[in-house]
Amino acid sequence: LGALFTPLNYRLTEPELCFLLADAEPRVLVTDGLCQNIVGQAAYSMGNPPRLFSTAAETADGFKRYEDVINAHKPLDRQTSLTADDPCQLLYTSGTTGRPKGVVLSHANVCWNAVNMMHVRRDRPEDVALLLGPLFHAAALNSHFTTRLALGATQVIMQKFDPERLMRLVQQERVTAIPGNPTLFIMLLAHGALGRYDTASVTTLSSGADKLPDRVKRNLFELFPEADGVYDIFGITECGPCISCLSAEDSMIKTACVGLPLPFVQVKLVDESDQQVPVGQVGEILVKGPTVMQGYYRNPERTAKAIKNGWFYSGDLARTDDEGYLYIVDRTKDIIISGGENVSAREVEEAFYTHPAVFKAAVFGLPHSKWGEQVTAAVVLAKDQDVTSGQLSEYLKKRVAGYKIPRSIHFLNALPESGVGKISKTKLKEMFTPNNVQQEM
Asked: Is-contact 73 256, C-beta < 8 A?
């Protein structure tokens, strides 16, 4: 069609949706019965609202039934002329400014990413893949869905993760490939009575979004004995998203490793002076290749800061070993990864600051055995103000998605600061990190 596909997170609140719609300015918006009310409210807050369609049997005011519109029209006579460099997807990702950034991926970006994953993960047309991640994420969309769509493989799509149903589907559909993230696999392994299901069909496991602990890998091998190992994938939305992959064969040889750069991707690590760092030293990950985005949507200034001389500056820190394998060390971006979801600390802090009782707020991630990181907040109240953590949580529910709300809110008289007056989140993490993170498996 030549259209630009923009999937939206169904868990967002109306203010969050309003921002994305104002930024993307869609001409057409398609939703379902679950989301049509909140989508309609957000759309009609725009000066020039899009045409609204719903897949629901009973549509809300202002919506047309999607199937009725399709059935009332004939296929297009013309064919749109497209090139590889034309935009294909507009994906929104959290950023350090607290507002999502629109990432424009071309048809070439998507196709080269698929070629890389087919080659490294050895995806096959005869695969039956269980798709668990939401398709508004680049990982589920491009690492798994579009790759296997291109191969003509079978995909079993779960609307919501449920361990028991997942195992039933594995046995019933003879699933061969299961992608997930550490949180999903931990929750799956914590579910009882898994051994009664036949898992012999599963030969491919892959993980992303965060580091997969070795103990979880060993437990997965017991549950899926025919799998060769776990493909551990590192990626960023701006890079298509896949950058590197640890092969299944190496999954227990290299610990906390995300493997080698993909075939058609160049990676180098640089210091603050843009000089390449030696093996073993930490540097920022720079990525170059046909999977790197065209740029940020309608934001040439931000694009120019992120892409210099063809290299994308990821903001992620890593080191390499003497074989060239990548090990992620930290994130320079203020992003918390909780249960595979990216949470912008700045965005949540801004929501805190709209409450009259909040004087200062800092949001950060603490290690968590199930979620990877747990969203946590430290708050200083304004003078003569009184509010509870429960009241603040209820307040935030109307402003940010549920997974962004801190699971614990600590009240302090003052926030620790660095010498230049910047809030020290390193000190906050030290203050509130327990000596032993509770294990829930």
From this structure: no
